[in-house]
Structure formats: structure tokens, C-alpha cells
Amino acid sequence: MSRPKVLSMVLAGGEGKRLMPLTVDRAKPAVPFGGTYRLIDFVLSNLANSGLHRIAVLTQYKSHSLDRHISQTWRMATMLGDFVTPVPAQQRLGPRWYLGSADALYQSMNLVIDADPDYIVVFGADNIYRMDIGQMLTAHIESGLACTVAGLRVPRSEASAFGIIDADASARITSFLEKPADPPGLLDSPEESYASMGNYIFTRSALQTALGEDAANPSSRHDMGGDIVPYFVEREQAQVYDFTHNTVPGTSESDRGYWRDVGTIDAYHHAHMDLVSVRPAFSLYNEEWPIVTNAPQAPGAKFVLRGTAEDSIVSPGCIISGGDVDSSVLSPRVRVDKWANVEHSVLLDRTTVGRNAVVRKAILDKGVVVDDGAEVGVDHEHDRARGFTVSAGGITVVGKNVRVPAT
Ligand code: ADQ
């Protein structure tokens, strides 16, 4: 069989309201993650490592830092030549901003016509995982169906954030409920539900027809999960691809099946803690399936005056000068001064933590300055009174460039 022609389209227009204030002035896929990465690096690395090099990234909301990151990291990446193209909303059909994720695809149909693919891979941009998408493509082609949805089991308590799948023994999807208030449990495991990962493969002609009908339907919300997947389920043309069957070179048994939606502050914080646990639930150190990013031009991290970091990721350019860092992730050029204490926290680029300061279970956005002796995450009432966000799970978030005084 000749190699099928594939076009990948990455949906990168999400606002990420539940990640506020991290998404005040950046699109959700541009949110930094794991020290030196941004969320979009995970899907783009998965596509590139899977040999799928023809990629359009559909951006929209506050896309400036996202566009810059894609051009610096991906468009120029020598391993890919110039395959990754960011497509800003204004380059599409018509003058309007798009209405939903399906409309973003519909308005980008010119890319499909130009590339003339047999199959279209449509993936979200906000998740942390490794996946060989070639295996899902094979399953899609072998099924002969029009639509394949990647799925995995999630705790039922979290399932109302997802599209929930019911499938028969042959993996054909028999029902799909987008973000149901009361998600059904599985027959063999009532406290789990089968969730869509928001990653799809379509046969090109079928997707074009579906998007055309959707665009003409005034009652549609033009949403991939809410409208397009149900369209194919109704026509008995959708199957689920079980993510736990996917194998990626270099991953350990414990890494297998790791997938996190980091759509909330608590989930974002939790996924960082997964990175720094001694046996990480998700390892960034797998060189056989590298996650690619734009490494900063900065010297190695430096530890002076008995500064320490334990169970932590410390990026280039950081200086730990007599402070202690524990179970935390530090982006490039962070400074932690004498007698300061940082624990269970995520510090983004160029934050500084002054002498005797305490930062606990917190996320500090770029450029935050914690003054000498100041505290973050110690007293939640005080945190809220100072205008910081405190999540349901008790994580304090300080927005970009904010100065935290000692009183
Ligand atoms: P959500 O992630 O809540 O659920 P959505 O907000 O549409 O759905 O985001 C999906 C992807 O599309 C993200 O990568 C986002 O950045 C992007 N996006 C959102 N709106 C867009 C737009 N107008 N244009 C371009 N891109 C856009 C989805 C599915 C669920 C599934 C979860 C898994 O709808 O069924 O369970 O993903 O995380």
C-alpha cells in the first residue's frame, strides 16, 4: 500500500479561561510547562516523532506569543524543514472570528484543498502525553470508518469536563455525550468513565462533508466535540482508539497511558508535581521520543552559598543563592536568595524570590518579584486579599510581573 497522504491540523485557539491568570495575555497552548516547554510542544513533538510533518496550527485568541514560539521553535526546526505553519484566524474565509473549533477547521478548508490529503488528523494543543499517532492512523485506516476518536478511562468524578464515549465490543462508538453533568460510569468499573482526548482522525472527504453541513446548520455550536463527533456517531461512522494500546519507544510501563488535561490551575500544578516525583509519572528524559522546545540561550543553573534544590527541575540561567527549593519546577533565569524557601511550586521565567521569603504550593507567572521576607501560599486569606487567585485545591497563583511585598 502506498503511504497515505496526511494533513495534521492542530486546534490552538483555546482561551483557557479556567487557567486564569496564566492566560490573561497568552493563548492556552502557549502557557509554559515543565520549565522550558509550552503546552503546544507536546502535540507538535508527538506529530513530528510520528513522522507526520505536514502540520497547520490554527491559532486565534491572543496568539502573539504562540505564533512567536511556533516560528522560533518549530517553523525553523531543522528536523522539520518548514512544515509547521501557524495559521492566524484573519487568513481564513470571511471577515469574522471563528465561532468554535469546527468553524476553525471549516474556515481553513483552503489548506485541505491545497494539501489534498487522504486523511486529516485533528488534535488539540493543551494536553501532556506521548503518543505514536501512526498507530492510531493505522487503526483508523483498517476500520474503514470516517472518524476515529482517541479515548481513555478517567475517574468519573472528573469526567464531566470531557466528551464521554460508549462503545461496543468492536470499538464502534454507540453514544457520545459532550461534557455531561452526570457522566455514566463503565459497566466493568462504575467509578470510571471513558473520555475523549479531543484527538481525532478523519477520512478527508467525510470530514469535508460534515463540516459543510455543520456550517449550514444554524442550531450548531460548531464544536468538534459537541457537534462533529456526534454527527459521525449518529451515522455509525465513529470508533474509539484506546490510548492504552499505544506504545511509544523509550517509555516505561509507568509512563504508559499518561495523559493529562491541564485545563485548570489544580490540574496544571498536579502535572508539574508528576514531573518532579522521584519516579516521574511522566518523564521528560526520553530521548527516543523527545519533546522539542526552544531552549533558551542561558548558562547552566548555578547553586551557591549552600543553595539547594531537591526533587525539582531547575532550568538554565537559574541561580539558587543560599535558598532551598523542594519539589518545584523552575523556568529559566529564576533567582532564589538566601534563606528563602520554595516548595511544591512552579516558578515561570525570571521570577525572583528574596531573602527569607516563603513560597508554598504556588504558581508565580513570569517576572514576579517576591520581596525579602514576603510569603505566598502560607495564608490563603491574605493571598486573596492581595488579589492573588487561590484555586479550589489551594494553589495560589500570582500574575505576571506582580511584586509581592513583605506585608
Ligand atoms: P475542551 O478542551 O474543553 O474539550 P475546546 O475548548 O474546544 O474543548 O478545546 C479543544 C482544543 O481546541 C484545544 O486545543 C483548544 O485550544 C482548541 N480550540 C478551542 N476553541 C477553538 C477555536 N475556536 N479555534 C481553534 N481552536 C480552538 C475537548 C473536547 C472533549 C474532550 C476534551 C479533552 O471537546 O470532548 O474530552 O477536549 O481534553
From TrEMBL:
<feature type="binding site">
    <location>
        <position position="163"/>
    </location>
    <ligand>
        <name>alpha-D-glucose 1-phosphate</name>
    </ligand>
</feature>
<keyword id="KW-0320">Glycogen biosynthesis</keyword>
<dbReference type="GO" id="GO:0005978">
    <property type="term" value="P:glycogen biosynthetic process"/>
</dbReference>
<comment type="pathway">
    <text>Glycan biosynthesis; glycogen biosynthesis.</text>
</comment>
<dbReference type="InterPro" id="IPR056818">
    <property type="entry name" value="GlmU/GlgC-like_hexapep"/>
</dbReference>
<keyword id="KW-0547">Nucleotide-binding</keyword>
<feature type="domain" description="Nucleotidyl transferase">
    <location>
        <begin position="8"/>
        <end position="275"/>
    </location>
</feature>
<feature type="binding site">
    <location>
        <begin position="178"/>
        <end position="179"/>
    </location>
    <ligand>
        <name>alpha-D-glucose 1-phosphate</name>
    </ligand>
</feature>
<dbReference type="InterPro" id="IPR005835">
    <property type="entry name" value="NTP_transferase_dom"/>
</dbReference>
<comment type="function">
    <text>Involved in the biosynthesis of ADP-glucose, a building block required for the elongation reactions to produce glycogen. Catalyzes the reaction between ATP and alpha-D-glucose 1-phosphate (G1P) to produce pyrophosphate and ADP-Glc.</text>
</comment>
<protein>
    <recommendedName>
        <fullName>Glucose-1-phosphate adenylyltransferase</fullName>
        <ecNumber>2.7.7.27</ecNumber>
    </recommendedName>
</protein>
<keyword id="KW-0321">Glycogen metabolism</keyword>
<dbReference type="Pfam" id="PF24894">
    <property type="entry name" value="Hexapep_GlmU"/>
</dbReference>
<feature type="binding site">
    <location>
        <position position="98"/>
    </location>
    <ligand>
        <name>alpha-D-glucose 1-phosphate</name>
    </ligand>
</feature>
<comment type="similarity">
    <text>Belongs to the bacterial/plant glucose-1-phosphate adenylyltransferase family.</text>
</comment>
<dbReference type="InterPro" id="IPR029044">
    <property type="entry name" value="Nucleotide-diphossugar_trans"/>
</dbReference>
<dbReference type="InterPro" id="IPR023049">
    <property type="entry name" value="GlgC_bac"/>
</dbReference>
<feature type="binding site">
    <location>
        <position position="196"/>
    </location>
    <ligand>
        <name>alpha-D-glucose 1-phosphate</name>
    </ligand>
</feature>
<dbReference type="Pfam" id="PF00483">
    <property type="entry name" value="NTP_transferase"/>
</dbReference>
<dbReference type="InterPro" id="IPR005836">
    <property type="entry name" value="ADP_Glu_pyroP_CS"/>
</dbReference>
<feature type="site" description="Could play a key role in the communication between the regulatory and the substrate sites">
    <location>
        <position position="97"/>
    </location>
</feature>
<feature type="site" description="Could play a key role in the communication between the regulatory and the substrate sites">
    <location>
        <position position="60"/>
    </location>
</feature>
<keyword id="KW-0808">Transferase</keyword>
<dbReference type="InterPro" id="IPR011831">
    <property type="entry name" value="ADP-Glc_PPase"/>
</dbReference>
<keyword id="KW-0067">ATP-binding</keyword>
<dbReference type="InterPro" id="IPR011004">
    <property type="entry name" value="Trimer_LpxA-like_sf"/>
</dbReference>
<keyword id="KW-0119">Carbohydrate metabolism</keyword>
<dbReference type="GO" id="GO:0008878">
    <property type="term" value="F:glucose-1-phosphate adenylyltransferase activity"/>
</dbReference>
<dbReference type="GO" id="GO:0005524">
    <property type="term" value="F:ATP binding"/>
</dbReference>
<comment type="subunit">
    <text>Homotetramer.</text>
</comment>
<feature type="domain" description="Glucose-1-phosphate adenylyltransferase/Bifunctional protein GlmU-like C-terminal hexapeptide">
    <location>
        <begin position="299"/>
        <end position="398"/>
    </location>
</feature>
<keyword id="KW-0548">Nucleotidyltransferase</keyword>
